[in-house]
Amino acid sequence: MQPRETGSQDDSLQKDVAAATVVFNAKEPMNRAISRALAVDILDGRWKPGSAVTLEGIQDRFGVSRTVARESAKTLESMHVVEVRRRVGLIAQKVSEWSSLDSQVIKWKLSSRRRKAQLLSLTQLRQAVEPVAAGLAAKNAKLDVRAMMPLLADEMKQAADKGDLAHFHELDIRFHSLLLKNSGNELFAALSDTISTILKGRVELGMYPSAPRPEAMAAHIAAAHGVWKGDPEEARASMRLIVEEVADALADAA
Fold first, then answer.
1. pLDDT tens, position by position, 117-140
2. Would the N or C end of the chain have less CB density within 10 A of its end CB?
3. Are 221 and 153 within 8 A, CB to CB?
4. Could you give the angle at the alpha carbon of 6 between the alpha carbons of 110 and 50, nearest 5°?
């Protein structure tokens, strides 16, 4: 691939990007894999904001058709990762200008050298949002949803006790998503996919303990019962314990 400054050539940048290792997943469409690789090039400093690559450069680097290269460019442009200009190519944008809450952008950041910083930022988001969402769910969720929460928490505990972490994590994502979607706040509900990506990312990066901590499991059960009983304060306080435990674990891993 031939990155170039919009104003001047940068030979060292060309070498860094050309040498970057790209890992492809057979289940991931090629255009998405290329978008990920290019985004991570920016995140890891191989492709500097303000410099450009051409569609021809993408075709040469990845051995793909112009159609696939264009699809990758459109994906990146839609998330403000690049600006596409005729006769110039794809111009890398500052990370601060990207669509930070987009689940795809979060995944890219978690695949880069910025993963720990990204997890910290996302956990701070959870600390601000999830306790409030749990309290609102205790007030606003329908009876069938509220009744489901203690059952879901109990199933989580059973999975944890059996050492079935894969099933536990599936249930954990469902637990947190249900609270957000049933909080009665449409903005919180819209964050459910983002929170799910955060939860999956922590597991995939190996930053989740080998088994759920007892205090975290107890807090999930307490939050579930707070929602079931229609007790916003119990639900809110218990969820605060959950996200603070995550923040503490990340701090210990730093």
1. 998 899 999 999 999 999 999 999
2. C
3. yes
4. 30
